[in-house]
Design goal:
Number of strands: 14
Number of helices: 12
Order of helices and strands: HHEHEHEHEHEEEEEHEEHHEEHHEH
CATH architecture of the largest domain: 3-Layer(aba) Sandwich
Structural class: alpha/beta
Strand order of the largest sheet: 1-9-8-5-4-2-3
């Protein structure tokens, strides 16, 4: 049996090696390393895939979030609501810009931001909402957009984990994750469902004026060379990464299907076990399984992790500490116990390997040992 990895990028690369190497060779020969044709080609292809007017490539997903906030004309002290159960970058960019992150709890089944909690957190200082499409499925965007319209708020979708997921509206229409808010952001970190071989990110919008501003901000606030109309940053997706992403974009739906098949295998294997809660997909979204995350009940998680490591099966905890309990974000507004769902999840979740290259032998080995580990780790 092949070594099991959380994400097997080596084997995935072998499937696309010739195309990737050909694409990189063309860039080497043209020497168009920055903002070359490969970037523009990938941008156009991703716009077509998402059904969005504008894709603005940038250096990484964190930059995508920060630059998006920079276009909204927010002032220091303005409040931005987001979830406490997410990767730190979501709140990090809010704080870096002198804005005030307002954290709220999540739903216990989907792990996504609680819409009622958002509404309760809105104050006269609230200017924006950043819902996170956590682990691969959409937050309740129809409800969030209605709430934003009611209170005149901007919505920036943190779509760093759910590219390719579909949101299904009550009328049956669909939109891709990241295309419903005024802005959407994604990361192309190597382990993402659509990942490059370094850092990369992108911003999505249908707004022509925001598109114009975004392209200036990511290029030092410059629209005409050496004339700087805005305070900007240096955040570019280089041509090599764009070329790799373009090769992978053609296969994204296939990659998603393979992840869904692996998740279905896990779900069937763990069905009926009272100590394991498998992922729940909301009825208004598809799930692309950036992570496959279980919630444990009555299990010593550390003991289970040690057992899995002994069996050479990698597992991860996403995320062990909610944002409101992080030292960097300590705030008198929040105390332990304020967000019970997120705190419970942080203490009890565990994520299993999920990627495009998992085979039947590996899946059987993982599930068999996970069940055995759960049996041995009961409190």
């Amino acid at each position: 049996m092949r070594k099991i990895q959380m994400v097997d990028l080596q084997k995935q690369y072998q499937q696309i090696k010739s195309e990737v190497e050909e694409a990189l060779q063309q860039i080497m020969e043209s020497a168009a390393f920055i903002n070359g044709p490969a970037v523009k080609n990938f941008q156009g292809n991703l716009e077509n895939y998402l059904g969005i007017k504008h894709v603005i490539p940038c250096a990484n997903g964190t930059d995508a979030l920060q630059v998006s906030l920079m276009t909204l004309g927010l002032e220091p002290g303005d409040e931005v609501i987001t979830t406490t159960f997410t990767f730190i970058a979501t709140a990090e960019v809010i704080a870096l810009l002198g804005l005030t992150p307002v954290l709220v709890d999540v739903y216990p089944d989907t792990f996504n931001i609680d819409v009622q909690a958002i509404e309760k957190a809105i104050t006269p200082k609230t200017r924006a909402i950043i819902p996170v499409h956590l682990f691969g499925q959409c937050a309740d965007m129809e409800s969030i957009m209605a709430l934003a319209e009611k209170h005149d708020l901007s919505v920036i979708e943190d779509n760093c984990q759910a590219i390719g997921a579909d949101y299904i509206f009550k009328d049956g229409s669909k939109q891709k994750a990241g295309t419903m808010g005024i802005l959407g952001c994604t990361s192309f970190f190597p382990s993402k469902n659509l990942g490059c071989y370094g850092d990369g990110g992108a911003i999505f919008t249908d707004d022509d004026q925001l598109d114009y501003q975004l392209r200036g901000i990511v290029n030092h606030g410059m629209f005409v060379r050496y004339y700087h109309d805005l305070i900007g940053v240096n955040s570019r997706l280089d041509s090599m990464q764009a070329a790799i992403l373009d090769v992978k974009l053609k296969r994204l739906d296939t990659y998603i299907q393979k992840r869904q098949e692996a998740a279905a295998y896990y779900n069937n294997a763990f069905a009926g076990n009272n100590h394991i809660k498998t992922p729940v997909t909301a009825p208004f979204t598809t799930h692309v399984y950036h992570q496959y995350t279980l919630v444990l009940d009555g299990i010593d998680r550390d003991k289970l992790i040690s057992f899995m490591i002994e069996k050479q099966i990698p597992v991860m905890v996403y995320y062990p500490i909610p944002l409101h309990l992080q030292k960097a974000y300590s705030d008198d507004r929040y105390q332990r116990g304020d967000f019970p769902v997120s705190e419970h999840l942080a203490a009890n979740v565990i994520s299993l390997p999920i990627h495009t290259e998992l085979d039947a032998e590996q899946l059987e080995y993982i599930t068999t040992n996970l069940l055995e580990g759960v049996r041995l780790s009961q409190k």
